[in-house]
Amino acid sequence: MRRLRACLGAAAAVTLAAAGTTALVASNASGATSALGNRWYAAAPYLMPLDNDPPDPAAIMDATGLKAFQLAFVLAPNGGGCTPTWGGTAPVSSDTAVQSVINTIRAKGGDVSVSIGGYGGTKLGQACSDAASTAAAYQQVITKYGLHAIDFDLEEPEYENTAAVRNEIGAAKILQQNNPGLYVSVTTAGTADGTGWFGKQMLLEAKSQGFTPNNFSIMPFDGGFNGAASQTSALTNFNAILRSTFGWDEATAYAHEGFSGMNGRSDTGEYFGQADFQTVLDYATSHHMDRFTFWSLNRDRQCTPADNGGRTSGTCSSVTQNPWDFAKYSVKFAGVTPPTGTPTPTPTPTPTSCKTAWNASAVYTAGNEVSYAKHNWKAKWWTQNETPGAAEWGPWQDEGAC
After folding, report:
1. CB-based contact 151:70 (threshold 8 Å)
2. How much is the pLDDT for 27?
3. How far apart are CA 327 and CA 293, in angstroms?
4. Which residue, among 48, 44, 42, has the nearest Cα to 71 in the 3D structure?
5. Considering the entire predicted model, what is its pTM?
6. 3-class SS at 103?
7. Is 348 left (phi over 0), alpha (psi -120 to 50) or beta?
């Protein structure tokens, strides 16, 4: 959701297959940079380096010990085209302002991830013709800044566009393959049930392409949430969605799950204070989740009396706080040692018996089950003469081999 970012929304991160890039770039124009541990990229809060009164990252690092920042957002040009820009207006190719911010952070031993997508704006997945060209555009960002991490923030309106989502997920897979060691997060909207219909379709697209990022993160805010309990409930429900979609056991799903919150007052008037962040942090660490981040560092300071009148701001939190209170929770998450090794996925279950064969002339309603092509299928809604599996997001839900 993140409506305060609408003017800057951005696409996501991926690698270039067509150009044949085969190694993660470890340096940029300012010199070599070493990657941080993945835990830091997983804990990087969002920072808008060009808008919303950007704070000094060096001051935040000195005050909190934070080492990683999630810079937002990369978008397609406002005037059209398949080249990366900051906020739709500043071409990445000629950028010096964001590069200066990155240089400052790296000079103090930190690093950055770049987020592409966000709420609103034209995303590269919408503007580019296919996954390869989308990946090529993102590869320019990775190469320019010598990135070790990238975030695909897939939400409105992009995640409602089937072709755009296919391009973004396909690009993410290409980037992951062509940039060994690249940390890839995919962030999408959260609901009380975990994520909504479009979020679930995005997961199915990832499954169909055989793509697994470091994590799928949800944003449990701007959707009728009320404090930490509602957020941890959504995270539990999202874990169930990951298990059912990918066939993972609970531990494997949590190891690929992330939380992206909003500090202070949300766009819809929800409030998330320091105690809420601590509760969600405890949940994330106790369940060995892969990511804990928030929107945003630009907001991680108390409003002045003149602009704290019950409204949501892009430059302050609208709650009582000391500067960078919320960044300290990211530092805590980064300092927690993650579990060693990779959890073993649950073995593929033995195929079940096949339902009655699908009949093109029969009428089916929601919940009816049939078999077709050695798979069982369940109808999502009324359908007739629509072959199971023929339409990517059609009326039939694949229930597995039989």
Report:
1. yes
2. 38
3. 9
4. 48
5. 0.79
6. helix
7. beta
